[in-house]
TrEMBL record, chain A:
UniProt xrefs under Pfam families: ECH_1 (PF00378)
GO molecular function: delta(3)-delta(2)-enoyl-CoA isomerase activity
Keyword field: Membrane, Transmembrane, Transmembrane helix
Organism: Allomyces macrogynus (strain ATCC 38327) (Allomyces javanicus var. macrogynus)
Protein name per UniProt: Enoyl-CoA hydratase/isomerase
The keyword Manganese is assigned to this record: no
GO cellular component: peroxisome
Membrane-spanning segments: 110-133
Gene Ontology biological-process entries: fatty acid beta-oxidation
Automatic annotation (TrEMBL), chain B:
One term of GO molecular function: delta(3)-delta(2)-enoyl-CoA isomerase activity
Protein name (Swiss-Prot/TrEMBL): Enoyl-CoA hydratase
Gene3D superfamilies the UniProt entry points to: 2-enoyl-CoA Hydratase, Chain A, domain 1
SUPFAM superfamilies registered for this protein in UniProt: ClpP/crotonase
Organism annotation: Allomyces macrogynus (strain ATCC 38327)
InterPro entries found in the cross-reference section: ClpP/crotonase-like_dom_sf, Enoyl-CoA_hydra/iso
Length: 258, 261
């Protein structure tokens, strides 16, 4: 696996980076490293965006015309991502974080100019599952790791864009139990329900993810910015709803949980 | 077994009617609304009004008088042959009630789609046309294993589908089911109905209500914990269906249908 790219971590120069970006062959791997469970807060979102900027620049500018794809994964054995950083939202009065940073990141992933593969090596809950659903493909660890949209139990409603990602990406027979059960899916059941494209044993997860990524890497080489345009055409309704700006004060809606 | 204790005296609707079209009872956390309108539980103003009154009671219980307690709703029929055969076309033929569909029937569909507690349709008989749309607006559907077909037979009446009616099928069913359902029209029963995504499970006739209770009991804690957020989540998930159900259209069935007994 040759590489022409020196790994970087984000935030740059941080002693505890939230995200690492590496490259092997045509495939970038973005590893989420924000202990304990990769929750979305401003630092995490900025770090992911900085990493995505590097990949986007590579694929569309500095190495335009070359194959390129992106895997996301986590360095935590237990979690891919547990969703929004509720404690942060409770402690700050950052009522526009969800609309202006989190949803915007979901939209960016949904429309990303290269093929994206989520190597879901642990639990993907709530906002973490929505993030994974915004990828082109999802590979799930076969033995461990559950997928769930547990907003109804927090309890929390879903912003229009958040509700529309499952509506657009999942079979109706999965959408309803996922949101209202809330049903948790793992292993083959997750593949049968259309939540993931394949499962793989833990020690083969990244290899399988790389296989899917390598298969998609030529798309941007050939199509350039049209990959993103196609994603926008296919998911125009999701994009429109993700762009709806809603102020969200979690203190009004939820009890803080650690 | 479902908890049989009850803190609710059964009611029938219309209240004080010698021939009620609906009864409401409760066992444990679960209300059961039984449609009792012979011969086949068709939707007309009395039926819709009775259902709304029963739903008012459940809604008040769950969100006000017993807020914070588990609560769920099963709907079923007292009729061995039909869950519901849809709109009361005879009524619509005899009366110039051209706003009934938009203002009463579709608004009832919307109400059930957004209902604040988890709802389970216990399909103990045929569920056709407007009756199937009503069932599809529930959270879950359990179908009798040995008898009872599901069908959207508008194309054979012939009748078009109001935008909201078509969109319930689009939003709730796999595309590979939607098209045959509407255009053959394909009839689904038993395991085929489960495989097609029309119902969540099937059960032998003598176990149907017990299975429906199991699903209802599983969903009952949702409103206890989330209160009005259950309804908000339903609105967020099915915003497109709601928008179409709210489209008001004057519909005169005499212009395009022949009455059938």
């Amino acid at each position: 696996m040759s590489t022409d790219f020196v790994p970087i971590s984000f935030s740059r120069n941080s002693a505890e980076p939230a995200v690492k970006l590496a490259k092997a062959g045509d495939v970038f791997t973005l590893t989420m490293t924000a202990a304990p469970d990769n929750r979305f807060n401003p630092t995490f979102v900025k770090s992911i965006n900085d990493a995505l900027d590097v990949v986007e620049d590579w694929a569309l500018k500095s190495h335009r015309g070359e194959p390129c794809a992106l895997i996301t994964t986590s360095d935590s054995d237990k979690f891919y991502s547990n969703g929004l950083d509720i404690v942060y939202l409770f402690q700050s009065s950052d009522t526009w974080f969800v609309a202006d940073q989190f949803l915007k990141l979901l939209k960016r992933m949904l429309l990303f100019p290269v093929i994206t593969v989520a190597a879901v090596n642990g639990h993907a809950f709530a906002g973490g599952l929505l993030f994974a659903l915004c990828h082109d493909y999802r590979i799930l660890r076969a033995d461990k790791g559950l997928l769930s949209l547990n907003e109804i139990d927090l309890p929390s409603s879903l912003l229009p864009g958040m509700a529309w990602i499952p509506r657009a990406k999942l079979p109706p027979t999965t959408v309803h139990p996922l949101i209202f059960g809330p049903k948790r899916y793992g292993g083959q059941a997750a593949a049968d329900a259309g939540l993931v494209d394949a499962i793989a044993p833990a020690d083969q997860l990244l290899t399988v993810a790389n296989k899917w990524a390598e298969k998609g890497a030529p798309k941007v080489a050939h199509a350039g910015p049209i990959v993103s345009e196609l994603k926008k055409d296919m998911y125009a309704d999701v994009v429109a709803k993700l762009e709806i700006r809603t102020e969200v004060d979690v203190r009004k809606k939820m009890q803080a949980k650690m | 077994m479902a908890d049989k204790t009850t803190d609710f005296v059964p009611l029938s609707f219309p209240r004080d009617s010698a021939k009620p079209v609906m009864t409401l009872s409760k066992a444990g956390h679960v209300f059961t609304l039984t449609m009792t309108s012979p011969p086949d539980n068709r939707f007309n103003p009395t039926f819709v009004q009775s259902m709304n009154e029963a739903l008012d009671i459940v809604e008040d219980w769950a969100l006000k008088s017993h807020r914070g307690e588990p609560c769920a709703l099963i709907t079923t029929s007292s009729n061995d042959k039909f869950y519901s055969n849809g709109l009361d076309v005879m009524y619509l033929f005899k009366n110039p009630d051209t706003w009934f569909i938009s203002d009463q029937y579709l608004q009832l569909l919307k109400r059930v789609l957004l209902f604040p507690v988890i709802t389970v349709a216990s399909l103990n008989g045929h569920t056709f046309a407007g009756g199937l749309l009503f069932a599809l607006c529930h959270d879950y559907r359990i179908l009798r294993a040995d008898k009872g077909l599901l069908s959207l037979n508008e194309i054979d009446l012939p009748s078009s589908l109001h935008p909201g009616m078509a969109w319930i099928a689009r939003a709730k069913l796999p595309p590979t089911t939607v098209h045959p359902l509407i255009f053959e029209p394909k009839r689904y029963g038993g395991q085929a109905a489960v495989d097609a995504g029309l119902v969540d499970a099937i059960a032998p006739a003598d176990q149907l209500l017990a299975v429906a209770h199991k699903w209802a009991n599983h969903g009952a804690p949702k409103v206890a914990r989330a209160g009005p957020i259950v309804s908000e989540l339903k609105l967020g998930t099915y915003a497109d269906v709601v928008e179409k159900l709210d489209i008001r259209m004057e519909i005169d069935v005499r212009k395009f249908m022949k009455p059938k007994m």
